[in-house]
Amino acid sequence: MCLSLKDLRVSCIVLQHVYMLKIMIFTDNPSVNETQLVIKEARSRGIETRVKAPWDIVMLEHEKLSVDLVYVPSNMLNRGSTFELIHRLLMLKELEDQASIVINSIESMLLYSKEHLSIQMEKLNLPTPKTIITENIEYAYNFAAELLDSGKEVVLKPLCRGRGIGVTMLSGIRSRGDLLQFLTWYNRSFAEGVFYLQEFKPNLGYDIRCFVIGEKVVGREKRSNPNDFRYNVSAGGQASPFEDDIYDELAVKVTKAMGFKITGIDILPGKDGKPYVLEANCFPGYTALIEATGIPIHKKIIDYFEEIIKK
Questions:
Q1: 110 — phi, psi (to 5°)?
Q2: Is the pLDDT score of 1 beyond 60?
Q3: Phi, psi angle pair for 95, to nearest 5°
Q4: Cα(35)–Cα(48) distance, rounded to whole angstroms?
Q5: Listed residue (105, 102, 54, 55) closest to 76, CA to CA
Q6: pLDDT value at 134 more than 80
Q7: Strand, coil or helix: what is 198?
């Protein structure tokens, strides 16, 4: 018995409805608000959603994965011991081999750091503050001292942390002896062996967070803080809508250079008229963006997952 073209079309539609999309959320911090929003949105659409932490998986004994996509919404490769890093990297590699789609990609997550961003900015010939990244405390000291002696401000940052944690202005250091002592302390507390220092750029008193999914900016927020040079909402900053698409092209260009599919790009409008990209975060928070703009970022993330799975 031969099926008509109409019958075949109906059969295809039925099969599309029968098949349930399957995703896995792989994170060492599943209670984060943004992760919970994504989980709830996926399940509300009938998407089979598994949530796994690194300690839920036993290598060589785990079941073969049967999901369409793995989403990693946490910074698990930038915290923990060296052994945990190696273990989690191998787990991600296995997940990528089985699921074929891992967001963000393992390579981009492994390279994720302010240092990688600075390297990409230089390659793209984009405006970037004068920067040094080094394991040598003497080089770090000389860089900071030279800028401070010339009347400029210096910012010291951890290589991989977000939310403004450990970001410090060095202008309050009283003497060069104190500067060396401070760098020694900072190395133990935040730097973990790698100093990342930048010349502070005078700015308009705010930065812009562009939230990129795929190759499109889906939301923007303006962040300011009259009491701190850090504009992160988690550090006391205030978020408001930013409707201008002036930085969209720059944000997408940086996203591609970093190898991300979901990211928050933080851009500082300088008083010199140049836009300085300060952060490209592959684990961006967006609760403040939702509250400020009403844009349902978590729903747009699931829209994107459905789109790329069905391609």
A1: -70, -35
A2: no
A3: -65, -40
A4: 15
A5: 54
A6: yes
A7: strand
**What is the CB neighbour count within 10 angstroms for residue 154?**
24
68, amino acid identity: D
Task: Please state whether beta strands 131-134 and 195-199 pair in parallel, antiparallel, or not at all (unpaired).
Answer: antiparallel
How confident is the model at residue 13, as a pLDDT? 46
d(CA 44, CA 47): 7
- HSE-CB of 281 using CA atoms within 13 angstroms: 22
- pTM of the entire structure? 0.89
Count of domains observed in the chain: 3
Residue for token pair 């747009």: 300
Final residue of a structural domain among 199, 220, 248: 199
Q: Does residue 121 lie within any of the structural domains?
A: no
Range of the domain at 165: 131-199
Q: Are residues 15 and 95 in the same domain?
A: yes
**Of 258, 256, 219, 253, residue with least CA distance to 239:** 219
Between 240 and 10, the higher pLDDT residue: 240
